[in-house]
Model the fold of this input.
Amino acid sequence: MILKTIIAGLFALLAQPGLAQIVVSPDGEIKSIKQAVEMAEPGAHILVEPGTYMESDIGIDKPLTLEGIDYPLIDGNSEGFIFVIAADSVTIKGFNIKRTGRSYVRDYAAIMIEGVKDFIIEDNRLEDVFFGIYLAETEGGVVRNNRVEAFDTREASSGNGIHLWSVKNPKIIDNEVMGMRDGIYLEFVDNAEIYGNTSNENNRYGLHYMFSDGGRYYDNIFRRNGAGVAVMYSDNVDMMNNLFEHNWGTAAYGLLLKDINYSKIEGNRFYRNTVAIYSEGTNEVHIHGNDIELNGWAVNIKSNSARNQFTENNFIENSFDVRTDSPRNNNEFEGNYWSQYEGYDLDRDGIGDVPYRPVSLFSMVITKQPESLILLRSMFIKLLDTAERIAPVLTPKTLYDENPKMDQIVR
Amino acid sequence: MGCEPKPQPINYGSDECAYCRMMITDAEFGSQIVNNQGRAYKFDSVECMAAYDLTEDGENFHSKWVPNFLDREEWLNAEEAVYLHSETLRSPMGLFLSAYADRTSAEEMKDEYGGDIVDYEAVKQIVEREWLSNGSGGRQMMNN
Done:
């Protein structure tokens, strides 16, 4: 083994002057990752053999590649951080990391990356960690194909799976995060590119934007979180082809929008959420081509939301289609399919001949009197809604879809 | 009678902040305003409570409550609590505010984390300056 190591090391030296390879092994000459990092030249490749390494606060202050073979376990013994990266061009790949410290005042993370660029964090498995992968004041960098899992039954004591604070242009790709507070959390992040991730069963949100502009998230799955995704105080965020499902509970949403401007929500599927899309203080967002199916409410849009456009969405068997808190409407609904539409199409052009009003009278009533929900599906309510549809008295006069599609829109 | 309005338990991980709509998850920051009918408006942070206090009509407010950062089971009267405003001790909405029962314990935290010790009036001024005087919550912090 040692001979192999030396030969491999020699080859590395010969091939790339200045670079070197170091092998860490529980029964080898170098038994600790920390020691290997200390002795490595900048640019070195550190290979870690299978085994268990009881180590924490491994500081990396030069460009290095650390690669685990068959997922060696680094056990932090519930003390502090595991990796702390403070140099550009560091790669951490193929580790199994367990047991960071926990604290109310320090954000202990399995992999902490601070003030650097061009890093790659990939193929790692993190379990029983307080924070998982933590990016602070970084630029660029890729976090790919990691698994972060921590089911902490103590309420409110978990950190975030992938946490980004004051970051520019990060790529968060194909990760799986579960059982954390937020799966992926962004605060003061510009132009994040987030795709292919699965974020399930987190205590708060699957994905959470705070004060983070630009960029997009797409092709992700958000299932059974406290709420699927919250996008708050951010502009120009595109949200495409994601799946939001089974986010149930009193404050549970598929997608929660709060103070959002100039964004796009397209091609997503919202399935069985308490509220599929909640919108407050949201302006000029285009909600197009989504499938919104079997939710309690499809859309809850507050009156301080304006100039949003809902076009060509399928609204299928939601208990209520749209809920709002004002008789005024400053948003546009046009050319959507509504399974609750009971109009007709005499000229057979595929578009209903009478407008559809997605705010039912009953949904206005239960907004004020939640107890009346018990009357849902009663004949009395059906009569009320039919009367309201013919001669609207209470529901917003300007909130209607003038060209409702007769058939579900096929994509 | 005998129904004096008092703080309600917060369901961490399901109750929603009445100001910012975020789910409330941290017991060391979850705050509330109780009105004269005993209804509680719950917040995920001291800063959100102060913002609500500043922006809503407070005529029907009965009392305001913040958790003791050092004993999260204990509710402190917000007007009497002592606050630490320290950039090394982050709070949910990013204004770095934590609450204490007395000046001595706040001083101890200040020795460790730095910052300033302030009262509730000063907390409201911080929220006013950082959030309310220039539009929506927290936008100016983008350039930090």
User: Anything to note?
Assistant: The two ends of chain A are 57 Å apart (CA to CA). Chain A touches chain B through 29 residues (CB under 8 Å).
